[in-house]
Amino acid sequence: MKRIISGGLALSVLMGFGLNGEAVDQQKTVSRQQVNQAKAFPMFHGSYVGAPLKGRFDEDGLDIWYLDAKDFVADGTHLEFDLDWDIYGTMFTSKADADVGRVYNRYFQRNDETMYFPLSWSGRQYLILEGYPGDTYSVPFSVSRYEPIDLTRSASVQAKTMTALIVQTKAGMVRGSSLGATSVQALAPELRLEKLTYQSVAEAAQAKRKLEQSRATAYVEYDTPIKAFGADAFKKHQWSLLNTGQKKGVKGADISLTAMQKRIAKKKQATTLVAVIDSGVNPSYADFAGKVRMDLGYDFVNRSKTAWDDHGHGSHVAGVIAAGSDNTYGMTGINAKASIIPIKILDESGAGYTSDLVSGINHAVKKGAKVINLSLGGDTSSKSVESALSYAKSKNVLIVAASGNAGKKTVAYPARSKYVFSVGATGRTDKRASFSNYGTGLDLVAPGVEIPSYLADGEIAFASGTSMAAPHVAAVASVLYSLKPTIKASDVESFLKKSAKDLGTKGYDTTYGYGRLNADRATSYIK
Fold first, then answer.
1. Whose CA is closest to 467, among 350, 294, 335, 329?
2. Are 220 and 166 in contact, with CB atoms under 8 Å apart?
3. What is the bridge-based pairing of β-strands 164-169 and 217-222?
4. Which pTM value belongs to this model?
5. Which of the residues are catalytic?
6. What pLDDT sits at residue 46?
7. How far apart are CA 344 and CA 280, in angstroms?
8. Which residues neighbour 358 within 8 Å (Cβ) at sequence distance 6 or greater?
9. Is the pLDDT of residue 402 over 70?
10. CA 115, CA 19: separation in Å to the nearest integer?
11. What is the number of other CB atoms lying within 10 angstroms of the CB of residue 353?
């Protein structure tokens, strides 16, 4: 098989994607000077086949080209390179990536010698060709158009172990001892919450018993695992925004986005901050230009100021909310005036801890988020998360959470919290998705089956889950805030419920809540 020089990729168990091609152990170093001397791709329009890339490999066996995705995206979704058996190809999505050697890490191959690269990026991209020093070469390339990847198959997320405790100290009192904890971390000082980490499950259990006996302890609980719930090029696939009956759907079983856009077209809208607490967000896409506030985000998994997505779930959620519209790139987001605060609490496998969820909620509130999207959760309730949710609600923040993907008559946590707006999923026929949790506490349903959006590596993929339903609601909620920044969160909830399309039993029911999201009717309540 053709060698493809590639960076390391943490494989997603939720979304099930991987590499075609082989990673090599060593890669030749490319200097900044070589990158600066890169040649421009030959341009073409109206034809899917361009002039080949022709050149001669330098003394290091390298030759470098650059392109701007925006110059080709009108003609297709991917570039396609035909490489000979002795020519290797490497792509960088930006000059910054090329400077630090961060290689694009997914390639598709129809055969051993064809390499594909998505045209979803902003700025300039670089292709490095490698061969024998001094040899001449000719690499044909073309623009291709492909359907979104199908990632609707479910997969498990690797479980986390519970070796840490979350402790709330009573007001006016001081915790006497850390009881041998290897580390003590302040989660939310204003809520008097700390995380105590131990070397083993047994040590954590022993410490928990002792802390429960302390008069200074308000409560102590395990740091329990949580997980991810699973004329643009791909706009025709976004049935949730405009359902014309495609693929056996029911015409009109959508969120009425087109009608909403007409209703608010001449109204003044303010930018609204939406916190996506998830696996991070890749801000490099043209559809995300100016919309992802990396300066306000944080990575609580790696303790980094840059909440970069190494899984794909967070980018998928963010795309539903705020991707650019009608710019010929991949898809259409619901709210053009939304800015995303990326907060990473899920690792490369889509798993995380409640302690980081507490920190993430607290961070979102401090950075001014009006809406928080939680497309994640688990079975176990948490007092510390309740404290954080209560704090957010007191600051007039709307928290939207996915109801869970187990198909159970029990809403997952934190969606079932009284401080949260809970969202289940429907399909193309306006029926509850078979995987969608329902029951007491469900507030609304929204489209969540075969929803196209971005992954972490530039590809657009179909994904299904209440994870995809929740951002539809979060996005429409952010539209209400953008039309009336002083609106109360309780009024946003009320408008979303009153405007919903009633499904199932007349009135509220535990299968559909108050009904399916209707963006147009919701915005009609803003005067």
1. 350
2. yes
3. antiparallel
4. 0.80
5. 278, 313, 467
6. 61
7. 4
8. 166, 187, 188, 191, 193, 382, 384, 385, 387, 388
9. yes
10. 12
11. 23
